[in-house]
Amino acid sequence: MSKAKGKLAVYWAASCGGCDIALLAIDDKILKVSEAFDVVFWPCAADGKVHDIEKMADGEIDVCLFNGGIRTSEQEYMAQLLRKKSKVLVAFGSCAHEGCIPGLANLNNRQECFDTAYRDTPSTENPQNVRPRHETQVPEGTLYLPVFYDTLKTLDQTVPVDYYLPGCPPEADRIWDAIVAILEGKLPPPGSVIGSDTTVCDECPRKRTEKKIKKFHRTWEIIPDPDTCLLEQGLLCMGIATRAGCGALCPQVNSPCIGCYGPNNDVKDHGARMMSALASVIDSQDPGEIQQIIEEGIPDPVGSFYRFGLAHSLLRRGKLAADGNGHK
Amino acid sequence: MAERVGIYVCHCGSNIAGTVDVEEVARWAGQHIKDVVVSKDYKFMCSSLGQAMIEEDIKTKGLTRVVVAACSPHLHEKTFRRACANAGLNPYLCQMTNIREHVSWVCTDKAAGTEKAKALVSASAERVKYQRPLEPMYVDVNPATLVVGGGIAGLQAALELADAGHPVYLVEREPSIGGHMAQFDKTFPTLDCSACILTPKMSEAGQHENITLLTYSELEEVSGSVGGFTVKIRKKARYVDYDKCTGCGICSEKCPRKVIDTVFEAGIGERKAIYSPFPQAVPRIPVIDVDSCLYFTRGKCQVCSKVCPTNAIDYEQKDELIEVKVGNIILATGWKLFDCARMPQYGYGRLANVFTNLEFERLCNAAGPTNGKIVLRDGKTEPKSVAIIHCVGSRDVNYNEGCSAVCCMAALKLGHLVLEKTNAEVYSFYIDMRTNQKMYEEFYQRLLAEGMHFVRGKVAEVTDAARNPDEQGKLIVQCEDTLLGRQRRIPVDMVVLMSAMEPQADAKELGLKCGISCSMAGWYTERHPKLDPVATMTDGVFVAGVCQGAKDIPASVAQGAAAAARVQGMITKGRVMIEPIVATIDEEGCSGCRICNNLCPYNAIEFDEEKKVSRVIAALCKGCGTCVAACPAGVITGAHFNNQQIFAEIEGALWDAAAAKTEEETATQSVSA
Amino acid sequence: MSDETFEPKIVGFMCNWCSYRAADLAGSARIKYPPNVRIIRVMCSGRIDPTFVLKALSLGADGVMVAGCHPGECHYIDQNYKAMRRFGMLKHMLAAMGVEAERVQLVWASAAEGQQLADAVEKLVADVRALGPLNWPGNWNEHKDRLEAIESMVKEHAEAMEVLP
Question: How many domains does chain B have?
Answer without folding.
Answer: 4
